[in-house]
Amino acid sequence: MANALQQLIRDRLDRKGWSYGDVARRGGIPRSTVHHLATTDRVVRMPQSATLEGLSKGLELPLDTVRRAAAEACGIHVYGSPGDGDPEAATDPEVDLLIASVQKLSADDRRHVTALVESLLDRSAPRAPEK
After folding, report:
1. Are 74 and 104 contacting, i.e. CB atoms less than 8 angstroms apart?
2. Tens-place pLDDT, residues 36-61
């Protein structure tokens, strides 16, 4: 069974009648990269931003669509899809990736991340005026 990124690429190639080379030229990325992403069953790590941007351009699809498919292919469930019917859903792909990636951390590492986030939130919170 094809992963989400494979399916996205294959569907787009079939629909448009394009080759890997067509997508690569249009997106300014190597043909081998397009081929690899379209044929690899399990994507081990998230492709680099430049690769996702090139793939998005080459496939003529929104970057968010390509990024979400790549995340799903890596086994990262992306929460907060705008199509979920939740008007408050996060649309920032970095937020989506952070939220989904936390599940892959050990319990000890999650505690460290929680402490860091709390510290950053405390630092950016408005201070009450001193009396």
Report:
1. no
2. 999 988 888 889 999 999 999 999 99
